[in-house]
Every structure is written in C-alpha cells, then in structure tokens.
Amino acid sequence: MTAFYRRNLTCLAAAVVVASWTAGCGSGSKSGGAQPSATDGIPSPNSTVVATQLVLDTGTLSASDVDPGVVVDGVIKDGAQFTTWYATRTADMLLSKNSKVLLSDEAGKVTTAINSMGKRPTPDGLHSTALEILAQELVDANLINAQTLGGAVDSAGKVSLGSALNTWYSAHQNDMLPGSSTVAYSTEESRIVAVLQRTPS
Q1: Neighbour count for residue 4 (Cβ, 10 Å)
Q2: Would 31 be classed as within a structural domain?
Q3: DSSP labels, 6-38
Q4: Between 20 and 30 A from 199 (CA), which of 37, 118, 128, 162?
C-alpha cells in the first residue's frame, strides 16, 4: 500500500471520527448515555485539544500552521473548526521532531487519563491529572528525560501520580517549557485543567 493510499485511508477514518463527534454533540446525558470519551485510548475532542496545545506551545506547531480562528491568543479554541482541522491535518504529526509518538496516540493517552478522574473530579484531582498528562506528553515528545521525573515513570515509560511527580513539578513550575517556548509549566498545567473542566460529567 503506497503512502498516498495510506494517507487517504487515514483521512477517511478521521472524517468518520469527526462525524461521530458531531453526532454526539448536544445529545445530553439521557439515561446516563455514554459520552464521546467513554472508551480508553480513543481520543475525545478534549483530549485532542490538550495534546495539540502542547505541540503548539513547545514550537512543533505554530499558530500559522492552524486554520484561522482555531488559535486565539495562543490558546486552541475547541469547536467544529478545530475538530475538522485536527481530523484532516494531523494524521502523521509527531509530538516533536525527536519523538516517535504520534499526536493521535498521545491524545488517546490523554483520554485514558481523563477517564481515570471519574465523573466529578475534585480540584486536587484535576490538578493531579493535569500534571500526569503534562509530564507524559513531555516524556513522549522526548522534550524531557524520564529520569528527571525520578520514580514517577515506570519501566514502560508511563507516568504515575505521586510525590515524585509533585516534586518534579514544584521544581519546574515557573520554568519555560522545553525548546524555545515562552509558556511556563504552570501555564500549560492551567490550560490542561481548563480543558479537563469542560469534560462532560
């Protein structure tokens, strides 16, 4: 199968995902019906925003690479325009030039982290999950060395909640994200929290 056909198949699959997200929007929670992020590993719209925001804030992607109106004051605005852009333009995008992890795969990990919060997360739960997501993204993007997180990363490269993660964040929260970023760790964490708070309960 040629790269051309693989690309077309990927775009077709992405279009199906867009259609399914659109169909699920505004349906409410009738009788506790499933939300778009109910399945671990399948990226939800909120997860794709979180993952793409990091790629934007660390310089792999620039605001000019995104359709006009999607990025406002450096922040991705969720909605149909972003969803369409993401589905049609990011199929082969990596988290960074030195990463082997696709943006879509990272969004799947973000979905799993979001689902682990439960339906009504506490402020502490939101903060902890945001830290877990941020650290995992940076490790997977090869923007930080897993060893710098100490015991927060297991042998498979998975970041876990706990004191090691909190210690790492306390030491770096006022630093700028790796690369030529002008966004602080604390700012990125708050951007993640803002998206997590939009997750349907």
Answers
A1: 8
A2: no
A3: HHHHHHHHHHHHHHHHHHHTT-TTGGGPPPTT-
A4: 162
Domain that holds residue 91: 3-21+40-196
Q: Is residue 29 part of a domain?
A: no
pLDDT in tens, 150-159: 889 999 999 9
Return phi, psi of residue 61, to 5°.
-125, 140
Model pLDDT for residues 29-74, shown as the tens digit of each residue: 333 333 333 445 668 889 999 999 999 999 999 999 999 999 999 9
Tell me, yes or no, whether 32 lies in a domain: no
Distance of CA 120 to the CA centre of its chain: 20
Give me the phi and psi of 141, to 5 degrees please.
-85, 0
- How far is residue 163's CA from residue 169's CA, in Å, rounded to a whole number? 10
Q: How big is the chain by its Cα radius of gyration, in Å?
A: 17
pTM of the model: 0.79
Number of domains in the chain: 1
**Minimal CA–CA distance to 67: which of 58, 76, 55, 57?**
76
Q: Which residues of the chain have pLDDT under 70?
A: 1-42, 199-201
Cα distance between residue 52 and residue 49, in whole Å? 5
Give the position of tokens 């009738």.
30
Whether 33 is covered by a domain: the verdict is no
